[in-house]
Amino acid sequence: MVPRRLSPGASGGGDTYGGYRARLVETLRVQGIRDLAVLKAFAEIPRHLFVPEAVRHRAYEDVALPIGNGQTISQPFTQARYLAALRLTGREKVLEIGTGSGYQTALLGALAATVFSVERVETLARAAQQALRLAGATNVSVLHGDGTLGWSAYAPYDAILVAAGGPEVPRPLVEQLAPRGRLLIPVGARGAQTLTLVERDDAGIRQIPLGEARFVPLVGEHGFDA
């Protein structure tokens, strides 16, 4: 069975944000995002469902916003850059580490066949599940747990995206990466990392630095201490 993706403008009760999403897409295009599938995902997915009511009026600004528990929903340009680097074709099984608000999970759901996402903060995991339901994303699953351990039950994954910065690439995630798979993760000290693309091919594992990044710490057995 082919999973049902997010329908354009899905919002679980009417949508008046289409124009705002269009402006956000144009902002991303001006900043250099050229992947048409990524831009289409941003045009379709209702970001306002994934932010608290208090900041909903800013949902389509190209800025990070607080979502509680010391976490943020990332800047859209950062997410667009991240997603474009994965080069998804729509056929992949993807693992996301750090569900957060669930917005990036929904974006991945529009770009891949299936998405499995792990969130260590239980309240965030529950809120994300609710927002994903409201958004109509039915090809995504969320697990409350230690993301540095991955989600071995559904491995291997064609792509893995880590939405937090770790001191190194967690070994369990490398082990759950499929042959010719791609893993994207910020690596480095707290508050200052290098966005790193990890590729698995016949020759083994190679790491490709893509530029500076600044993400919340990756906490867990194979990350930083809480």
Strand-helix topology:
Elements: H1 18-30, H2 36-44, E1 65-68, E2 71-73, H3 76-86, E3 93-97, H4 103-111, E4 114-119, H5 122-135, E5 140-144, E6 157-162, H6 171-175, E7 177-189, E8 192-201, E9 204-213
Helix pairs in contact: 1-2, 2-4
Written overview of the protein:
This protein has helices at 18-30, 36-44, 76-86, 103-111, 122-135, 171-175; strands at 65-68, 71-73, 93-97, 114-119, 140-144, 157-162, 177-189, 192-201, 204-213. By secondary structure, the chain is α/β, with parallel strands linked by helices. The longest helix has 14 residues, at 122-135. 45% of the residues are buried.
> Which overall shape is indicated by the principal axes computed on the Cα atoms?
globular
How many distinct beta strands?
Answer: 9
Beta-sheet strand percentage?
25-35%
Unreliable sequence segments: 6-13
What does the largest sheet look like? Answer: 7 strands, mixed
Mean pLDDT level: 92
Strand order of the largest sheet: 5-4-3-6-7-8-9
Number of structural units classed as domains: 1
Instruction: Label the structural class.
Output: alpha/beta
Order of helices and strands: HHEEHEHEHEEHEEE
- Figure out the total of helices: 6
**Helix content range:** 25-40%
Q: Span from first to last CA?
A: 40 Å
Q: Would you state the CATH class?
A: Alpha Beta
**CATH level-4 homologous superfamily:** Vaccinia Virus protein VP39
How large is the radius of gyration? 16 Å
CATH architecture: 3-Layer(aba) Sandwich
